[in-house]
Specification:
By secondary structure, this protein is mostly helical. It is 82% helix and 0% strand.
Length: 210
């Protein structure tokens, strides 16, 4: 309802081709994505991209954000051919605007690495995960949830590659950070336990996994 009101005001006062209405479209897309209404999310994200490109230009963080979110949607739908160019463009824009040591750039690298991992392109995913981890460690420190996420993402990759010792080490480091920063009642901590359980199943350690 609130989003509908804001859209109405933006359209009446500024028109469809405006930054305000572009932001409304982006948020409408996000809401639909979160409730798994993917066709509606795609429609609104696409409109946000079109508007933001016209109003803000291509070298803009909000435009990059809309590209990235649409890429995430296509990744969720396993439409990798559509997701990849969106992620690549968002990554390029963020490198140009915020530089290659910024957490936003690291987030783009992580998205791209997730895509390549899901495509089975492990050799392409690994250096992107490692670079994202290094940026987050430098920019955010070693006790930040995003750094823990990087450790976890790399651990998932190594598990898929059969590098179980490296994966376990990264999972455990990630778990320690999550427990300290977010606590044991946070969903991310539960996920870290689940990841370790799956790893132990792969190793045949069923009692430990249970």
């Amino acid at each position: 309802e609130v989003n509908t009101i804001s859209e109405k005001i933006a359209l009446e006062k500024l028109g469809r081709i405006s930054g305000a209405y572009g932001a409304c479209c982006h948020l409408r897309g996000l809401v639909n994505y979160l409730i798994a209404n993917y066709s509606e999310a795609e429609k609104w994200y696409t409109e946000a991209i079109e508007i933001r490109k016209k109003v803000l230009g291509k070298d803009n963080r909000d435009y990059a954000g809309s590209l990235s979110n649409l890429g995430l949607l296509y990744s969720e739908l396993r439409n990798f051919e559509k997701a990849e160019p969106l992620y690549l463009e968002a990554t390029s824009i963020r490198m140009k605007i915020v530089g290659n040591e910024h957490p936003e750039y690291a987030a783009s690298l992580n998205n791209l690495a997730n895509l390549y991992r899901d495509m089975g392109n492990f050799d392409e995913a690994e250096p992107l995960y490692i670079e994202a981890k290094a940026i987050r460690m430098k920019a955010l420190g070693t006790e930040h949830p995003d750094f823990a996420q990087s450790l976890n993402s790399l651990a998932i990759l190594y598990s898929l590659m059969g590098y179980y010792e490296q994966a376990e080490s990264l999972y455990l480091k990630s778990q320690v950070i999550i427990e300290k920063v977010l606590g044991k009642n946070h969903p991310d901590f539960a996920q870290s336990l689940n990841n370790l359980a799956i790893l132990n199943m792969d190793l045949g350690k069923f009692e430990k996994s249970e």
